[in-house]
Design goal:
single chain; alpha/beta; Cobalt-precorrin-4 Transmethylase, domain 1; Methyltransferase, Cobalt-precorrin-4 Transmethylase, Domain 2; 2 domains; five-stranded mixed β-sheet; 9 helices; about 20% strand; globular; binds S-adenosylmethionine; EC 2.1.1.98; Diphthine synthase
């Protein structure tokens, strides 16, 4: 049996009781922390709580050669992921590979950043369109710095359909955790190049350390928020479409957006 377990958002105590029980009953524990991670914890603390060794897998171990899956043919194996195991990950592929090997699978869900951003900001979950990830820029073989324009295009498309955009921020083992500041700087560079007015006068929402006791939620104009310090990672960015009155009120009262965004909206 292979059980996928979402660990929740911030530290070792965010796991569900069901998830914890499944780990305690497991023969082997595997985890990946490249899609998301628990910034308020570490492997030692997880192992102490579980009373088990945690085998941390690389992206290659999970997505290219998941040889460890074979252990689940005759053992109770659990696979841990930050947040919810199937939200903004490709882990359904592992589940399908397990099925092809005749291994039963089960999911134990965890709190996800996808719902936390709605709770923390007051933005309505049903108004979100396609999400995107901003990768760190890279240097091409010709020595040119390449900035992905895909997130900009996604925001543009969502705005055209009056939908909010969640922008996940890159986690890279060498370049580190992308911040809201870096993300906005990159989006504004694309804006300068393309001049399509997608980010001009856009109210954006930056969220840091969701799930901790002191999450930071800040809303403001992109060019202003770019210079605000949201503190330690993880960070995530939301670019709202037009706002309903309650959403705007929440951004003003809960996230410090300027009161001028309420003008002209009906309550
Ligand atoms: C690829 S998504 C994976 C989402 C995860 N499976 C989940 O359900 O929460 C990871 C990205 O979401 C954002 N993120 C995840 N947890 C976060 C948190 N606690 N606070 C702020 N941003 C977070 C970061 O931008 C991070 O790079």
């Amino acid at each position: 049996m292979l059980t996928f377990i979402g660990l929740g958002l911030f530290d070792e105590n965010d796991i569900s009781l069901k998830g914890l029980e499944a780990i305690k009953n497991a023969d082997m524990v595997f985890a990946e922390f490249y899609t998301s991670c628990l910034m308020g914890s570490n492997i030692e603390r997880l192992e102490e709580l579980y009373g088990k060794k945690v085998n941390v897998l690389s992206r290659e171990d999970v997505e290219i050669s998941p040889d460890w899956l074979a252990e689940a043919k005759d053992k109770n194996v659990v696979f841990l992921t930050g947040g919810d195991t199937m939200v903004s990950t490709t882990h359904v592929d592992l589940r399908l590979r397990a099925k092809d090997l005749g291994i039963d699978t089960k999911l134990i869900h965890g709190a996800s950043i996808a719902s936390a951003i709605c709770g923390l900001s007051g933005l309505q979950n049903y108004r979100f369109g396609k999400s995107s990830t901003i990768p760190h820029p890279y240097t091409s073989s010709r020595g040119v710095t390449v900035i992905s324009e895909t997130p900009y295009d996604t925001i543009k498309l969502n705005k055209e359909h009056n939908m909010h955009t969640t922008v996940f921020l890159d986690i890279d083992k060498d370049k580190g955790y992308m911040t809201v500041n870096q993300a906005l700087e990159l989006l504004l560079k694309v804006e300068d190049k393309r001049g399509e007015g997608v980010m001009e006068d856009a109210i954006v929402v930056g969220i840091a350390r969701a799930g901790s006791d002191v999450p930071v939620v800040k809303a403001g104009y992109a060019h202003t928020l770019k210079d605000e310090d949201l503190g330690e990672p993880l960070h995530i960015l939301v670019v709202p479409a037009s706002l309903h009155f309650i959403e705007a009120e929440a951004l003003v009262k809960l996230a410090g957006a300027p009161e001028s965004i309420l003008e002209g909206l009906d309550d």
